[in-house]
Design a protein that fits this description.
With 197 residues, the chain is an alpha+beta fold. The protein is built from four helices and six strands, in the order ββαββαβαβα. A four-stranded antiparallel sheet has the order 3-4-2-5, covered by helices on one side. The chain has a two-stranded parallel sheet with strand order 1-6. α1 runs antiparallel to α2. The chain starts with 8 loop residues before the first strand and ends in a 17-residue tail after the last helix.
């Protein structure tokens, strides 16, 4: 049961997230080339997120992807904090990133793309100051829900609700866990995700 407006939802995106801690090297801002600003290095990672979203949006969607709104995998940074003072290169910067991955795509591949970019940023930081680093802490990992062919759960919900349309959602639920455990799975419940947060 999730807020699906009592429609039979047969697919949703998977999700994974990380807290990113960029550890820089403080110097006075007048000596900028000798320090490593955690905020400015975090911006390089966030810029990759923006570029990735643009590339994903510009790519032609598959048939399954076209059912979703938006019809592509999305990456999002929802908060950021860090720094000591206006005139000091930031020693620390933290932000959270989440990925909403189409169920036809592999979350592990997206995770590796992200880690590969983080490692490039970290290597450039450490070339300037060896004591710097980027630390990733996993936040969540939710499997996507794949539409089933002749799914028993879908047939049951359709017989109860009379809903015969095709519905997928971009938010995540526990449904992917049930499906991965071998259960026929569908999402159906009162309410609308627009009021969930």
């Amino acid at each position: 049961g999730e807020p699906s407006m009592m429609q039979a939802v047969t697919g949703h995106k998977g999700g994974q997230g990380f807290t990113v801690h960029v550890k820089g090297f403080e110097v006075h801002s007048s000596l900028l080339p000798y320090g490593v600003s955690a905020i400015m290095e975090a911006a390089r990672i966030i810029d990759w997120v923006n570029d990735t979203n643009t590339a994903n949006q510009d790519a032609p969607p598959t048939d399954l992807a076209a059912m979703f709104h938006p019809p592509f995998t999305t990456l999002h940074v929802g908060n950021i904090k860090g720094g000591t003072a206006r005139n000091i290169t930031a020693k620390d910067c933290w932000f959270d990133i989440e990925m909403r991955v189409l169920p036809s795509e592999d979350k592990a591949v997206w995770k590796q793309h992200f880690i590969d970019h983080v490692q490039k940023v970290e290597a450039a930081m450490q070339a300037k100051q060896p004591d710097t680093e980027v630390v990733l802490e996993p936040l969540f990992d939710v499997p996507g829900l794949q539409p089933e062919e002749d799914g028993a759960a879908e047939a049951l919900v359709r017989s109860i609700t009379g809903d015969n349309a095709t519905h997928v959602v971009s938010y995540g639920t526990e449904a992917g866990h049930f499906q991965n455990a071998g259960y026929s799975t569908v999402i159906c419940g009162p309410g609308d995700i627009a009021q969930a947060h």
